[in-house]
Batch of 2 targets.
Target 1
Amino acid sequence: MLFSSITFIYYFLPILLLMYFLVPKKYKNLVLLIFSLIFYFLGEQKYIIILILSCILNYFFGNRIYASKNKKIWLIIAIIYNVGQLLIFKYTDFFIENINKIFNSSINYLYLVMPIGISFFTFQALGYIIDIYNGKHKPASKLLDFMTYISLFPQLIAGPIVRYSDIEKELVERVHSVDKFSEGISRFVIGLAKKVLIANVLGDLASNLIEVDLLSSWLKPIVFTIQIYFDFSGYSDMAIGLGLMFGFRFLENFNYPLIASSITDFWRRWHMSLSSWFRDYVYIPLGGNRVSFIKHIRNIFIVWFLTGFWHGASWNFIIWGLYFAVILVIEKLFLKKYIDKTKIFKYFYTSFIVVISFLIFNSNSISEIFNSLGNMFMLNNIPISSKSTIYYLKNNFVLLIISIIGATPIMKNIISKFKNTKYKGIIDFFEVVGCITLLILATAFLIDESFNPFLYFRF
Amino acid sequence: MKNKILVTIFIIYICFFSILGILVPDKEFSSGERRKLSEFPKFKFEENWINKVDKYFLDHFVLRDKFRSLKAVYNYNVLNCLDNNGIYLKDGYIFKSNYPTNKSSINNFIEKISKLNSLLNKDNKVYMMIIPDKNYYLESDDFLQIDYNYIYNEVNKLNFNFIEIRDVLKLEDYYETDTHWRQEKLDKVIKQMSKVMNFNYNNISYEKNFFNSFYGVYYGESALNRKPETLVYLTGNIFKGTYVKYLENSNLNTIYNESKLTGMDAYDVFLDGASSFIEITNNQAITNKELVIFRDSFGSSLSPLLVNYYSKITLIDNRYITSDIFKQLITFTNQDVLFMYSTLLINESGSLKG
């Protein structure tokens, strides 16, 4: 089930809210768990067993790691289980395909369907057991609390990757208030609007740019970059908003990444829960930057290879990750200190690198990547523009302007500036009206448009 | 205070629509969209069950049409979009984009017509008339059009006697809210056909019949409120000697089915709408010639105006009937054969049967 669906907003959510706030405190986690499992079951009936098994086994592993003398052995077993589960469901056919190509063999594909959200809940479970091993927190005292943590529906299928330590206390004792609930509504509706009113429409624009010309070859990756930002950050906003409604405060996952001043800065702002996961559970254990220069470079390449590969079992994602590794190494070596001195250029530089990265990300093959780059840099014989491209640009021009402004903190800063002045009442009024208006508009768009799944469900 | 107000409005708003959604009885059809609305799906262990549930809730959402209108108004007036779901508005007309030119569809069309042509007798005189959809007359550089010249050139390679009507028609000859042309404006098309098909054109006087509540197919798609149009259908003495035989509707034997005026699509008044095989005989025709028309829906309003010139007109809509079946219903001898299709169909010819 999608958050941006009528079924979720108008039926699943109100029934859950009613049940959740009606039951006594001690049953709230149970209600959340049952509804989270229903939520998952409605989208992934067969594989719910994978999720439940993952919860039970990781709870067991956590306890064994904490209590056993052979902590390391239990840690290794837990890692093998979790990584193995991910490798089997997500990467088996990719490995078979490449083995067949290299060795000219004909191993049959398994055609396994990847359980929704497996990349996210597996990483949460891995973080949980590694943190117990490192003594950062104790295992969950109750299986119910742990299952609620792993399967908590707001972040279950597309993140953010929530650390157990961040919501450990809230799982046991959390505060519900009108203020928190209201903040949750605002975040949820903003996320919904980002997804439905911007990302989906930009997705249509990108798919309509079918003419091959210079303008469309630039416009397409730019539009896709903005689309994926609004799509994914919109989902994170909805997840954070829903968390707030039920008393949880998840950490932010995006911090206006499209205004980053370098690629180093970009990755501090984009999908923060994933980049910090790789930093804490891969990069630092490998020695981070406190090793020899060669090992430091190796660590960067390992982390970015894995980051790319995490996004999907395809070579373009691996190239995408390694592309960032190369850029980050160059920035660390010398580039960053030069571009930091510039005022405007650094933003153009970062935007350019990011747009090219999403061109790689969104391509279906390596030849498509080179063909698209050839078109962008006039290496292929293509016209400057076409009537069709200009039409679609004009048709979506206002939306593009709105989305570019929306990708910056301009509105947030304006609201913050006036919040503590005599205009607070007016700002509050517009916040309420704006929130309900966006909800109504998003509903109108949902009704008018067909089913449109989130991009990040693939990963 | 703000937070209390927001929470209260949010809860009331969500509950209002969810409770009404359950209480309000389901509609079977959406007249605006001319389609059957979905039913609540029985639970099955399948991944897309929830998608069917979502489709059901989307179809039956309270004030659904108002929400669709809101989206259209927002797109046109706030986002300044040139189209909403491919619907353009200009000079009171509603257009629907059929861009881009679908070359594989055009090839498919040519292939299907070639196959039909191979069924004909060598004594049949074969004609081709392509009806431009009304986007052809959309005089604006802002909107995207298919490559009409490409379509005409490709279809012309069939080497049939070609009846060119692009310069004969104007935008005013089409309904504002519908895809179709107006029957009362087609006399000039008949005149043009007579030049190529060698029949003696007569200036026939018709009696105009009006239906003032016509909402065309684009009305529902546009999701905007506007006044209905007047649909005109022509009657007169010319039809006195006609007898119409419908393959699917044996109860009807007239050119017009007026009961359709108040149905889903008032344009179905012409020859009962979607009909696969129709024979119109006229014992008062000025010749004994026979005509076979392979056609789409545009043929329904035009064909009655040809009864004066042919004693028998057979209409075959090969979207609904295969050649295996109609071959049993007709023998090709020395009839005139007219292939008459709109550019809308040629550019989206997947529905044509072999």
Target 2
Amino acid sequence: MSSERRYTPTHEWIASAGQEGRMKVGITDFAQKEITDVVFVELPKIGKKVEKGGEVAIIESVKAAFSIYAPLGGEVVAVNEKIENAPGLVNEDPYGEGWLFEIKVSDPQLFGTLPDEAAYQKLIVTGGGH
Amino acid sequence: MPLPLVAEHLRQGARMTDFHGYELPLTFTSILEEARGVREAAGLFDISHMGHFIVRGAGARQAVNGLMTSDLESVPFGKSLYGILSDDNGGAIDDLIACAFDPETVHIIVNAGTREGDFAFFRERLPSTIDLEDQSPGQVALALQGPRSGEIVRLLGKDFESMARREVRQVPSSGGILWVSRTGYTGEDGWEFFGPPSLVLPYYQTFVLEGKPRGLVMAGLGARDLLRLEMGYSLYGQELTRERTPFDAGLDFAVNLRKAAFTGRESMLTARADVNRERLSGFVLLDRGIPRTHCPIFDGESGGRVGEVTSGGHSPRVGGGFGLAYLSGPFWQEFQKGREAFVEIHGKRHRARMHPRPFINASPIPKSPSL
């Protein structure tokens, strides 16, 4: 199966979590480097309805607080409880153990409209800020 | 404005940030790791942005003393002293470190963002017969901080390890003058070096090559800010401004009322008698969160707004969120006695309690000879 990731201009990534319409969300490697040491993450409640671009979580780093936006609309169906006690995972493994939450996406077709790896890399080079 | 070590920092993987117009390392690896490195071993900071003035001429020490709150004439030659540069209203123009080598020569270290204003103030207030020189442009300055600094400074083979705490040495050579000072702003033992690149860069190389195997870490501004905040030290522009007197900031130790007159003395004493004036307090959060500059603070009982955070952060050593805040005089009194406050972060209230400064104990500083 494809573990293709898509991205947002605000430096979130989204990828299929296996089940139909369920997708994992995290922040990119570029973002975790910008943010520096993550100290904790305020995760959403399961069941929260989110709109594309709406604020879902807050990452607190040593440097500042950063809002995390939903790459696509839907409902939060899981959160990564591991990062509550080990927030450093967001820095160490942003695409793996450091994922943030899972959304049951209302319209999975929209996944393909988000920037892919190449488009995201281009965004970073032209100076995207979180 | 590019500082001499920028290319070197980039080679070492630094993430740079703008600080008052200077490009400086924010972090090399991780802010928390660098701060821990400094507390447990040693860290090397580029502080080339800091202002460095030399005042020369008959009566230089006495004239500088008339502009600062602490008593430079009460400390031995060659020993530095922390003080506040005040305006006529008792407000802080800057905080500084001064050292007189003799009655005619004073060395002063000031903050980067205030350097030009300080220079203009000194020039205006010092007699015209006294020469004032800004050494900072093009200069390199390094701070080596941490319990293993002594072991690392010994590698230079210059006997700097024999210096007393707060001692400053002038080291003249054909390449100019190097100033070495056993000072810092992390609470740890340490040395600071100021001078032309040709004199300071060889030391930098020695520290990097031979210090790293001894636990030395390269440290950036992120760690520097966290370390000073753990000690409860003020940062100019946050805890100290033109609107605040040293008493407001709790820097009574830096004001000597027995010395001869100094600028702002009467105004700051009048302000001190005003019980309604805001005063600075340390606090720790009882709930999970990180307080940031400008977060509002409310009375835990009445719910009324009583102040604002000036500096905040998170420290594993402190055990969570903590910071410094200006609080209304009457609430400040209650807060010191144990009343709780709320700090508002992202629209949510977090319980806070007073914590004395410093928030943690730095490493014990080894016995050194006194001057």
